[in-house]
Design a protein that fits this description.
By secondary structure, the chain is mainly alpha-helical. It folds into 2 domains: about 1-195, Fumarase C, Chain B, domain 1 (Orthogonal Bundle); about 205-490, Fumarase C, Chain A, domain 2. Helix content is about 55%, strand content about 5%. The chain starts with a strand and ends in a 5-residue tail after the last helix.
């Protein structure tokens, strides 16, 4: 059981909730803070104070006073009008992450919701009722308004959900689990949608996939080094210590460990003096990606435990401040940086693929074909990798450099962080397919060299890979192999 406090949610806990379906509860201490914050909201309404989003309209309508009798209608109208997301829905795991992160943020006790709102979010999480949330329509400031409105609809018994493998009206799933919908009262609609949980949820899922992918890319690069009889001197610890980047040192160490007992790799001068950069510079390039991953993880861990709605309530209501914590700029930058860093893993992987298949760059059969000329072998797999790499280059263009004013220029600068997070995830998906292609080609190359000469670690990987993608003995529909290896890599456990 994971207990949320609003303060200390970790990546390890998130991973357990998202992928192992660990149950979640709220700490009693955090709930006491929620109750105190709620009492402050009720006092504001009863006293007729003018406070943004509680007794006023939203955005450009912030100067319109809302009477006490209309505060519930105000919140319902907010959710209905803002639920205008479009496009394909987020993956279920991302929707699940949004529920978790929104509940955690509300538990900080700055948002003024009733405890029942948090309880319902956790009910959805624990019964695996996942809101259908369109991916497009958020500007990433004023929060992820459109996506989170679709999440909020489900609390009302409206909208759609994924439940038990089916897409259905929310009320059907709620009824099946005996969960009663809620009626939103003052501040609650705004508290649910005024936050960065869509971009952060997409970012968290992307980070977890990217971290695993980064480890896998090193192991697959090690198999490529064996297939091309790579020179191990370039991975000597002294070289990497001399530069001083710990991540670079760590990548070199892991590759040395993978290849410690290999009889396929070489020393400088044995066959050639230097390898091409795509082999020799794996620690430098992959290490730089790890530096970026560290940065991204740090920002996401802060945002996972952040109060990002508006206004925020402090000192039991004595201080209620309209600010801008909903602005997604920190996550927008992190997501753009993540896309760039993972795209580089694909870039260098594709160059290793080229060295594996190009007969002018190695002494292997052309395109690793069983019958060069009659059979094309891996020729077009390299094309596919090149296409994915090219697509990544367009996806890695920063979303955060753009801003379009909204709400009649009241909200005149936005982050586009949710676009950045979606692009980062697509880059990760593309890159996994690129390294799947490298794995297929590298495995074929080591077969020509002699599997019995492989290192213990890489041979173990090779044997598992061969269960998914058999040796190339004749041309076949390689798309099936690529997708099979891609799915296998995605499902493997992450190294820590």
């Amino acid at each position: 059981m994971i207990t949320l406090t609003g303060e200390h949610l970790t990546f390890l806990e998130v991973e357990k909730v998202l992928y192992q379906f660990e149950k979640v509860t709220a700490s009693s201490g955090a709930m006491e803070k929620v109750k105190a914050s709620r009492a402050a909201v009720e006092n504001i309404v009863n006293d007729g104070k003018i406070i943004y989003g509680i007794t006023t309209g939203f955005g450009k309508f912030s100067d319109v006073f809302i009477k006490k009798g209309d505060v519930e209608a105000l919140q319902l109208n907010l959710i209905h009008s803002h639920a205008c997301g479009v496009g394909e829905p987020f993956p279920e795991v991302v929707s699940r992450a949004m529920l978790l992160l929104r509940a955690n943020a509300l538990l900080k006790g700055f948002s003024g919701v009733r405890p029942v709102i948090i309880e319902r979010l956790l009910d959805l999480l624990n019964t695996k009722i996942h809101p259908v949330i369109p991916q497009q329509g958020s500007l990433g400031a004023s929060g992820d308004l459109a996506p989170l409105s679709h999440l909020a609809l489900v609390l009302l018994g409206e909208g759609e959900v994924f439940y038990k493998g089916k897409r259905m009206p929310a009320m059907e799933a709620l009824a099946f689990e005996g969960i009663s919908p809620v009626t939103l009262t003052a501040k609650e609609g705004l508290a649910l949608i005024n936050g960065t949980q869509a971009m952060t949820a997409m970012g968290v899922v992307s980070y977890l996939e990217a971290e695993k992918l980064a480890y896998q890319s090193e192991l697959i690069a090690s198999v490529t080094l064996e297939g091309l009889q790579g020179i191990m001197d370039a991975f000597d610890e002294d070289i990497h210590l001399a530069r001083g980047y710990q991540e670079q040192v760590d990548v070199a160490r892991r590759i040395r460990e993978y290849l410690v007992d290999s009889r396929l790799v070489t020393k400088q001068g044995e066959i050639r003096v230097q390898d091409a950069y795509s082999l020799r510079c794996v620690p430098q390039v992959h290490g730089a990606t790890w530096q970026t991953l560290r940065y991204v993880k740090e920002k996401l861990e802060i945002e996972m435990n952040a109060a990002t709605d508006n206004p925020l309530i402090f000192d039991e209501g004595r201080k209620v401040i309209s600010g801008g914590n909903f602005h997604g700029q920190p996550i927008a930058f992190a997501m753009d940086f993540l896309a760039i860093a993972i795209a580089e893993l694909a870039n260098i992987s594709e160059r290793r693929i080229e060295r594996l298949v190009n007969p002018q760059l190695n002494d292997l059969p052309g395109f690793l074909s069983p019958e060069p000329g009659l059979q094309s072998g891996a020729m077009i797999m390299q094309y596919a990798a090149a296409s994915l790499v090219s697509e990544n280059k367009t996806l890695a263009h920063p979303a955060s450099v753009d801003s379009i004013p909204s709400s009649a220029n009241q909200e005149d600068h936005v982050s586009m962080g949710t676009i950045g997070s979606r692009h980062a995830h697509q880059v990760i998906t593309n890159t996994r397919r690129v390294i799947a292609i490298e794995a297929i080609c590298a495995a074929q190359a080591v077969e020509y060299r002699g599997v019995d000469k492989m290192a213990t670690a890489t041979r173990n990987f090779f044997n598992q890979l061969r269960e998914v993608s058999p040796s190339i003995t004749v041309d076949r529909i390689f798309s099936k192999d690529i997708e099979a290896v891609n799915g296998w890599l995605k499902g493997l456990g992450a190294e820590r």
